[in-house]
Design goal:
The protein is mainly alpha-helical. The chain has two domains: 11-90, Glutaredoxin (3-Layer(aba) Sandwich); 98-203, Up-down Bundle (Glutathione S-transferase Yfyf (Class Pi), Chain A, domain 2), CATH 1.20.1050. The protein is built from ten helices and four strands. A hairpin with a 5-residue loop joins strand 3 (69-71) and strand 4 (77-79). Helix 5 runs parallel beside helix 8 and helix 8 (163-176) packs across helix 9 (183-193). The protein starts with 10 loop residues before the first helix and ends with a helix. The structure holds glutathione. Glutathione binds at residues 21, 37, 40, 46-48, 65-67, 80-81, 114, 118.
Length: 208
């Protein structure tokens, strides 16, 4: 089975992979727009109703209706941030924590980000503003926990792993929504978004 791609080891490319919250991606091919998170955020529909650039409905690619989705040349589709980022890390071991528990530490961190932080946002955004505070406090609690891990630079110390762009992207979005993030997390966002390649990726996603 010929699955994929020649993975590039450059940080730019992996940051791109991890910013595909608005994209359907086929490894080795240009991104296809799934309608754009910004348009969804502006209330212009859900991904499940969107058409994909070049034709076809997003719902036919991912019946769950949300992004991301990774489409392989043989037609297989991989969904869920945890699974996709673990797939990326398996192909770029320099972007995964080391040690005999490294792979499981990564899954532990990705699951934490996905369930404790990421999935609280749809509920937060769905609620009327005057009743959002308790869930905002829960989100902040877990951002503070993540911030406590950044003493040496990244979630896994000095090593930048695929978990970092996932947290970066959520923390950056939270700051835009007005969340008062702890200082280490604000510094982390500034540091990760500084390189021109990350700026370019953010611009492509309509996020800068
Ligand atoms: N369980 C999924 C959730 C992904 C998710 O919530 N994606 C959001 C964007 S960040 C989405 O597609 N929202 C738009 C929609 O529901 O139409 C995962 O972890 O990958």
């Amino acid at each position: 089975m010929q699955l994929v791609v020649k993975p590039s080891s450059s940080r730019r490319s992996w940051i791109d992979e991890a910013l595909f919250c608005t994209r359907v991606h086929q490894p080795g091919r240009p991104y296809r727009d799934a309608g754009g998170w910004n348009s969804v955020r502006r209330g212009q529909g859900r991904y499940r109703d969107k058409q994909i650039e070049g034709g076809g409905r997003y719902i036919d690619i991912n019946p769950k209706g949300y992004v991301p989705a990774l489409v392989f040349d043989d037609g297989e589709v991989l969904t869920e941030n945890v699974a996709i980022l673990a797939w990326v890390a398996d192909r770029a071991p320099e972007l995964a924590p080391q040690g005999h528990l490294g792979r499981y530490r990564l899954l532990e961190m990705l699951s934490f980000i996905a369930t404790e932080i990421h999935k609280r946002f749809p509920t937060y955004l769905m609620l009327p503003e005057d009743v959002r505070e308790p869930i905002a406090q829960e989100i902040l609690r877990w951002f503070r926990f993540a911030a406590g891990r950044l003493e040496r630079g990244y979630l896994f110390g000095k090593t930048f792993t695929v978990a970092d762009p996932y947290l970066f992207q959520l923390a950056r979005g939270a700051a835009e929504l007005g969340f008062q993030l702890p200082e280490p997390l604000r510094d982390y966002i500034a540091r990760i978004e500084e390189p021109p390649a990350v700026q370019a990726a953010l611009r492509r996603e309509g996020l800068a």
